[in-house]
Amino acid sequence: MSHPIIPLPQLVERAKTLPCAPWLLPKLLKQLEQPDSSAGDIEALIKLDSSLASATLQLANSAYFKKSQPCDSFSDAVVLLGFREIYRLATTKIASRWLTNPAQGYGWEPGDLYRHSLTVAVSADLLAKATGLANAELAYTAGLLHDVGKLALAFVCADNFEDVRELQARDQCAWREAEHRLLGYDHTDVASELLQKWSFPANLVQVVRFYSRPRLAHEEHRALVTHIHAAKHLALCLGTGVGEEGFHTEIDEALLREQGIAPDLLESLLPKVLAVSEKLLGVARA
Amino acid sequence: MGNSTLPFLPVRAPALERLQLTVGVADLKESDQPHAVIVTYSLGSCLGVTCFDPVAGAGGMLHAMLPDSKKCDRLGAPPAMFLDTGLALLLENILRLGGNPERCEFKVFGGAAVLQAHDFFNIGGRNIAMMKTLAGQYRLRVNVWDVGGQVNRTIRLHLATGRVHLRMPSRLEVSV
Fold first, then answer.
1. Closest Cα partner for A120 from A283, A280, A260, A282?
2. Cα distance between residue A140 and residue B130, in whole Å
């Protein structure tokens, strides 16, 4: 049985009621872009959110410091790791709160969307460092955010998923396309609306809108969007947190090549992607 | 108080608690405990290889990410990252537990890929091809090839039965 379709503006309004909107992220990003920005500026912003500093410190301890010698203060962690790393950790925490909101859809287990998004973020960061063609912190943030629209869709439109699943299986099209044909919009439209409402910069809005079809991105932002496109596919290979729709995504191999991203380069990054994402996800190695 | 009229209560042996062993990416585990369940999550393009010797009751699981260790120059990468070195280690560990690879039944899962990918990200296809070569070289009895497609797989090997429970997002779990 088909379920009624919720218009996009209503969906976005309802999705905004999900707890822990990442409102601090655009402010942090702006600070990072200031040439004279210091560790103190980033620290002051993070401390605006009372529990964020301690959550960031906790993540820093589990990822970077030995259990026997934990770092006890947020200020010390900023000094020891540098503000770019602290920015990454804080961003991870901010995004994880939103991405771990429970929602039915895409066959996710709890926490899957966060695990996958973090893996995309780590891949994007390493790829940007390897190519030198995109800003690494921005690429990391974009990776964390790229699928925010899926959470909103799963939260508001779970009833429509059976129809999307059927349409996708019948026509063997991309999952995004099935969403679009059935609902009149898809998770990338939803994400783009949400990020604009939260006052995110244009480059990140372009990422969430076009990461699966990077050729459509504005030329100015195409390199960044293409990096997230590639990072998404790298994360799919690892499989961490990938839902039922994961492998039904688009790929533009010609554009990857045009942008100087070769298959060998991507594959060579996999071991490092695994090591860094496991560290951040707190996966213990025997 | 008279003589106790409490009924005779049979003493039951405490049920053995299930022992779960989790295999990470680029990792392998083995056991000869009948109550053990070996699990690995989200194979993606990686391959999950299970082996089980019904006589020795020993089994193991490998979660390998890439086909060939000789094509990676990364120092310190664990042998289980690659199919060639990971499978060799799995067989070695099963032998150590008293198992015999010739008696073992093997099952292979994973190797998913995006439908439209040709030159990029064909790791899944190359993993499957490498596993077929290795299975021939070692003369392994592979009973199940649940590989390829656009699906993420989670597998659990139950050493009590040798069965593998296969789970995919939004689908019912099946036992193979």
1. A280
2. 33
Reported as a single tens digit per residue, the pLDDT across B70-126 is 877 666 789 999 999 999 999 999 999 999 999 999 999 999 998 777 777 889 999
Nearest partner of A192 among A210, A209, A213, A217, judged by Cα: A209
Q: Which of A254, A256, A236, A238 is nearest to A246 (CA)?
A: A236
CB-nearest to B123 from A237, A244, A246 is A237
Structural domains for chain B: 19-175 (3.30.1330.200)
pLDDT in tens, A43-74: 888 877 777 888 888 888 888 887 777 888 88
- From residue B53, give the alpha-carbon distance in Å to each of A196, B8, B60, B95, B159: 58, 41, 9, 10, 9
Please write the tens of the pLDDT for every residue from A5-48.
899 999 998 888 887 778 788 888 888 777 777 777 778 888 77
CA distance A159 to chain B (A): 14
Cβ pair A249, A175 in contact under 8 A: yes
A68 burial (CB, 10 Å; 0-12 / 13-18 / 19+) is: exposed
- How many helices and strands (H and E) does chain B possess? 2, 10
If you average pLDDT over every residue of chain A, what do you get? 89
HSE-up of B120 (CA within 13 Å, CB side)?
A: 24
At B142, give phi and psi (nearest 5°). Answer: -100, 110
Residue B166 and residue A178: Cα distance in Å, rounded? Answer: 26
Query: Per DSSP, what are the bridge partners of residue B164?
Result: B157
The reported pTM is 0.90
* Reported ipTM: 0.85
Q: Which residue of A has its CA nearest to B82?
A: A271
- Taking an 8 Å Cβ-Cβ cutoff, which residues of chain A contact chain B? 106-108, 165, 172, 233-234, 236-244, 246-251, 253, 256, 263, 266-268, 270-272, 274, 278, 283, 285-286
Domains in chain A (CATH in brackets) are 9-19+101-281 (1.10.3210.10)
B152: nearest CB among A242, A250, A256: A242
Burial of B157 (C-beta count, 10 Å sphere; 0-12/13-18/19+): buried
